[in-house]
Amino acid sequence: MHYCSPNAIIGVTEAGFVARVRGGSEGSDVPLSPEMLLVLEILLHDPSVERAIERCISITHTVLPDAVISAAREIRAALFVDQDQRTIHVYKGRLTVMDHRHWSLVKDATNHSIESRQVLRALADNCGLSVAPLDVQSAIAVIERLAALGQIAPPKGGVNWGHFKRRLPICPAFGFSRGTPIDRYYLGRFIEAVRPEVQGDVVEVGGTSSNLQMYDFNNARTYRGFDLFARAGVELVGDAHDAAAVPECSLDTIIAFNVLEHCAEPWEVVNSFHRWLRPGGKALCMVPSIQRVHRFPKDYWRPLPSGLEQLFETWSDRKLYIYGNFASTLGAISGLCAEELDKTEIDFAHPDYPVASCMIATK
């Protein structure tokens, strides 16, 4: 990477500075060292990595100018008015403090930043965090860490698309031609987490009774398939939108993997589930949050995690499972298989990039 473009949103906590990797929402903040702050600001104005490294090394051996120290104090004062809502934005050549409630500009320190490249260094110093002297190797390590965190990226036009610049996916069959589809891998993880909850009289909507062995649901007393059309392993034929399709309070567990997205009115289907279950019964559902269209027979929805929670809003207890991250989302939509990502890559969960959303809900 010869040129880097910062795209950082920085929050301030009692412990120090964090990168708001979810665009300001909570849950995935990662700490930023004073050295990272310095490098981000230098790259903001010096996108050449080679020049930025030279400047990093020279700056860490200099004394902060009085004007920059004063600007840093003003920024800190602006941030601490409401630090939960205000963040520092470092991108497009500007260094600003923004208020997220109204998306309004609170403070613009761009001019001081252009003149010194040290506003964030001074801010860290004002918070009692000193920048350690950098050499070439340590500066490179900081840049690589920032890139891994998504805080810097190639500039517009500098991205190498490689195999992904194509009109059609690598595998149009979800990745089956290459190995285990990524969403199936996540389904396996969900099943492992909830297997003990599958008990008593069980119906799998959209599935067959033969899946009992595949899923290893050993606590089931009975296991029947339910679907729109008769086929081997389907003991109950009907439409899940029809609450009368299964006797009321006759089931202990309902399985619905990759079903609700195919239902024209999934909220009515969830109401049917609630009617069919005995008190304390459980529904286990998985939906694709990101996936190619698959019309079996029709494809209506891509419920996001909050949407799935809303569907089960009135149930007595709910537990949401979210699987996916940027890499696995890109892989899933391109038709890569789970085996093409290592375990650390595929198991990392980023709530803004869900491949699959799963729910276990109790009546």
Tell me what you see in this structure.
The chain is α/β, with parallel strands linked by helices and 363 residues long. The chain folds into two domains: 5-160, no CATH class; 182-362, Vaccinia Virus protein VP39 (Rossmann fold). It has helices at 34-45, 49-59, 66-79, 110-116, 119-126, 136-148, 182-194, 211-215, 266-276, 305-311, 326-334, 343-347; strands spanning 5-13, 16-19, 30-32, 86-91, 94-99, 104-108, 152-153, 200-205, 220-227, 234-237, 251-257, 277-288, 317-323, 356-362. Strands 1, 2, 3, 4, 5, 6 and 7 form a seven-stranded antiparallel sheet that branches. Helix 1 packs antiparallel against helix 5, helix 1 packs across helix 6 (136-148) and helix 2 crosses helix 6. The longest helix has 14 residues, at 66-79. The termini are far apart.
Which key terms come to mind for this protein?
363 residues; Rossmann fold; 2 domains; 14 strands
Concise account of the structure shown:
Helix content is 32%, strand content 24%. The protein is α/β, with parallel strands linked by helices and 363 residues long.
Percentage of residues assigned to helices: 25-40%
Q: Give the CA-based shape.
A: elongated
- Secondary-structure-based class equals alpha/beta
Fold-level CATH name of the largest domain: Rossmann fold
CATH architectural group of the largest domain = 3-Layer(aba) Sandwich
Measured between the Cα atoms of the first and last residue, the distance is 53 Å
Mean pLDDT comes to 92
Instruction: Using the coordinates above, name the CATH class of the largest domain.
Output: Alpha Beta
| Oligomeric assembly | single chain
Largest sheet: 7 strands, antiparallel
Give the domain tally.
2
Are there runs of 5+ residues with pLDDT below 50, and where? 23-27
Rounded to the nearest angstrom, the radius of gyration is 26 Å
Q: What string gives the helices and strands in order?
A: EEEHHHEEEHHHEHEHEEEHEHEHHE
- The total of beta strands comes to 14
Tally the helices: 12
Q: Roughly what fraction of the amino acids lie in strands?
A: 15-25%
- In the CATH hierarchy, what is the superfamily of the largest domain? Vaccinia Virus protein VP39
